[in-house]
Amino acid sequence: MATNELFQYSIVSALMDGVASTGLPINTLLSHGDHGLGTFRYIVGEMIILDGQLYQMKSDGSVLSIEPSNSQDIVAPFAMVTHFQPTAAVKSSISSKSELFDLLTDLLPSARNHYIAMRIDGVFKAMTVRTVGGQQSPGEGLAEVGKHQVSHNFKEPTSGTIIGFRSPEYMQGISVAGDHLHFISADRKKGGHLLALESDGEVEIQTADISTVRLELPCHDAEFDKAKLKGDRERIMAVEG
Amino acid sequence: MATNELFQYSIVSALMDGVASTGLPINTLLSHGDHGLGTFRYIVGEMIILDGQLYQMKSDGSVLSIEPSNSQDIVAPFAMVTHFQPTAAVKSSISSKSELFDLLTDLLPSARNHYIAMRIDGVFKAMTVRTVGGQQSPGEGLAEVGKHQVSHNFKEPTSGTIIGFRSPEYMQGISVAGDHLHFISADRKKGGHLLALESDGEVEIQTADISTVRLELPCHDAEFDKAKLKGDRERIMAVEG
């Protein structure tokens, strides 16, 4: 795929319906992009991919670096990746997720109905991340999994990288509408799905407009075939917002 | 693109919002598939593509064969195409669109949450097609355009081909959920968006499961950038169902 095209495997509504017993092998996923996020079989932990390296951030606070050569059995039931090539960049301090949202909107004014890929590098304080601990039984939906997630507040300023995507409102249920961001620290020892952030001074924000999306739906997956996939905006925002 | 991958330009909600002043040049569209449907600039008529040949079916009842070499200015504000390679086929009589729906569901049982491409060849009686006549002013939405569409009932049995796609429910607003079918007669002299059908004896039904979708969103298109794209299930079904 060309740079700044989005590859997405499965849809968020499938995760909401607990479709997570199988997925796309991560070797295949990495062939479609070097920058992205997702989750793992049985929704065990948060996935982040930066500079082509894939990490699993687990609810016990551990972070595993996953090597493609060892990963035949490691699959993503949901993931979004791109070959990221920033087309706009700015240095700025950020006081909140909503300030970041507005800043990116101003940076890419013609991307209002497109996707956006982003990467933010710097030092953050008052950051909150969550890591989902996995399904307690096969088929448990993401909203239920989210109820027993673990949140971490970083007490000290932490250097690291945020990777994420903005998806347009009309894609809610397919993707997560709005900004969906994962974080990993520079020492690769902590991270997760980003709930709240405040930068410690200026951080570097890089972004790119995405107007081509390749969506790959699960095949030979009985859970996906029979899932209702009704989506539910409120429930998706509660667990992924 | 590989066979049986869907290429879609823009989204149905954009047509509903009247985004139709520009679009994808049909030369580019045809590079992505030889089988499909769509519409033209200002929603003037119905598009059908079979065996790589593209036709414009207009509300005055005329059918134009569009040659790619002459088409730099001919654009599709919305279209869906694939390189169609049927994976299942059956000969059957069909008494209605809903019977066709059930027949295809039985033919591809694991495609319930996928797209389906289809082609039906044979003789049809009691067929009703509509052809939209175009926007009365730029930006007029598809629901309004549909109010001044022209319907044709074919009084005599007509030989021809139906080309279309089934889209999953969760893609309503992106695509048209359910079966979206266009028809053209064997003599290429009449056709349109299919509202009702009954076959005259057995027809040949060919179909294929689609699990990979490439969605290309309009770029450098001020109408698309500012469109609300809220979708509206009832209005889409009223005009496209």
From TrEMBL, chains A, B:
This is Alpha-acetolactate decarboxylase. GO terms for biological process: acetoin biosynthetic process. It is an enzyme of class 4 (lyase). GO terms for molecular function: acetolactate decarboxylase activity. It holds the Pfam family AAL_decarboxy. Pathway: Polyol metabolism; (R,R)-butane-2,3-diol biosynthesis; (R,R)-butane-2,3-diol from pyruvate: step 2/3. Belongs to the alpha-acetolactate decarboxylase family. CDD domains: acetolactate_decarboxylase (cd17299). The lineage of its organism: Eukaryota, Fungi, Dikarya, Ascomycota, Pezizomycotina. Its EC number is 4.1.1.5. Keywords: Acetoin biosynthesis, Decarboxylase, Lyase. It catalyses: (2S)-2-acetolactate + H(+) = (R)-acetoin + CO2.
